[in-house]
Amino acid sequence: MNPFLRDHDDPEAVSGSPATILIVDDMPNNISVLFETLTRFNYKVLVARDGKNAIEQAGLAQPDLILLDVMMPGMDGFETCRRLKQNPATEVIPVLFMTALAETIDKVNGFNMGAVDYITKPFQLPEVLARINTHLMLRRLQQELEEANTHLEQRVAERTESLSKALAEVERLKNQLQAENTYLREEIRQAGTFEEIVSHSKAFAGVLRQVEQVAPTPITVLILGESGTGKELLARAVHKHSPRKNKPLIKVNCAALPATLIESELFGHEKGAFTGATGQKTGRFELADGGSIFLDEIGELPVDLQPKLLRVLQEGEFERVGGSKTLRVNVRVIAATNRNLEKEVIDGRFREDLYYRLHVFPIQSIPLRERKDDIPLLVRHFCDKHGAGMGKRIEQIPQSVIDILTDYNWPGNIRELENIIERSLIISTGKKLELGNWPGQSLLSLRASSTGPSKPVLLTMEECERQHILAVLEHTRWKVSGKNGAAQMLDMIPTTLDSRMKKLGIRRPE
């Protein structure tokens, strides 16, 4: 052990293995003294007699430190040091000048070339060993710092990547939550289960039994029936009685969305997918993940979009518009339509495979004309429901009003009845419900006309519907769409009303 060194300055303790030192000197005596001393203290020693050889050995052997003589023939120590520091392979190796020059300018020149220290000739061996060990220790600490810094940079990069992924997931969840909140603000989330459905009809009780049977299962449900018969209430009841009741029920009215936007609404889109797509949009199927989706008016779904819906039903996967990433969802589909889908399949407007995939468990909603015993209950329900908002409390519903409403065939079903009661509440001045004038009365008057009190005029359902639509159109002065138009009064989509008018041969008077 070197008597001039502390234990922790031992060459092997410092580096874990003997440090390598390159001695560069043209004087054999200097080399001999340094070689003997350094090897005695467990250093591995390399020797070079000139600058050129020193540069070659340093590049190959990568010593831990270089002792470099200043005054050498040919390439002196300053130039040798300059070239070592210019080479990326040797620039980090500490260089200690060995010099007999005492002028400060020469020492400064050496530092300018990149040297870290100098040793004065003639050598004082304790000083030589102390300086060597100091710079080896500094070099080791520098290497450890560089390794730690590299490791830290790797850890930072890994954590940054992990954080970026986490932030992206948070952003995705935030966008999904915002989209769901937006949807929930747009849609009325009704509470309750069968309490929403007002009925004591035996016929309708059979429909509710079907709901109870299918609700706990994961299978697709298709609700069939005329417009206004409460298909959405049945869909909500299926969801509320299912294991998914604590997850969202997302509603999509396929007839109310333009054909150009329905794919984006159902499946979402990526930023830049089309003109106006300024950001990523979460589709309704993503919002419904884990819950249920109610596809109202499924018969209006464009044919070119039906294969994508079929894929979701079969595989539970899809891509956003403009995206390539396949998304998977677990969604229970409840669909509804007032169309005859079998005829739509025959006419080529609805895919047969999609029809059979939807028609797993059909539920037929009952029109109001087949459950007229529910009309008194429904009238009371709508009086309570809408009266509170108008600041009115109806305590008396005359039997004459119930008789008139029961005598009507209700082509618009429960939705039409609700609209009539809402208008009746507006004109009612006291606590008694006043029916007033309404378009359906013209039909009742027509039915009441006869050659005798016992011979009423009987109308077919088609003629009844035609007369009712005509009465509403006359009431609105043939305004079909828009506010206070016939479609709004009948609670129908304007395009559907146009279709019914054409079918029934209803034309605007010239």
The whole-angstrom Rg is: 45 Å
The count of strands amounts to 12
Number of helices: 20
Q: Uncertain runs with pLDDT below 50, 5 residues or more?
A: 1-9, 186-193, 446-457
Estimated structural class: alpha/beta
Q: Describe the biggest sheet?
A: 5 strands, parallel
| Percent helix | 40-55%
* Terminal CA distance: 121 Å
Strand order, largest beta sheet: 2-1-3-4-5
Mean pLDDT equals: 84
Q: Describe the global form.
A: rod-shaped
- The fraction of residues in strands falls at 5-15%
Task: Write the SSE topology.
Blueprint lengths: L10 H5 L4 E5 L3 H13 L3 E5 L2 H11 L3 E5 L7 H10 L8 E5 L4 H10 L3 E4 L4 H62 L15 H13 L6 E4 L6 H10 L8 E5 L8 H6 L16 H4 L4 E5 L9 H10 L1 E3 L6 E3 L3 E6 L3 H6 L5 H7 L2 E4 L10 H16 L8 H9 L5 H15 L12 H9 L12 H15 L10 H5 L3 H10 L7
Helix pairs in contact: 3-4, 11-13, 14-16
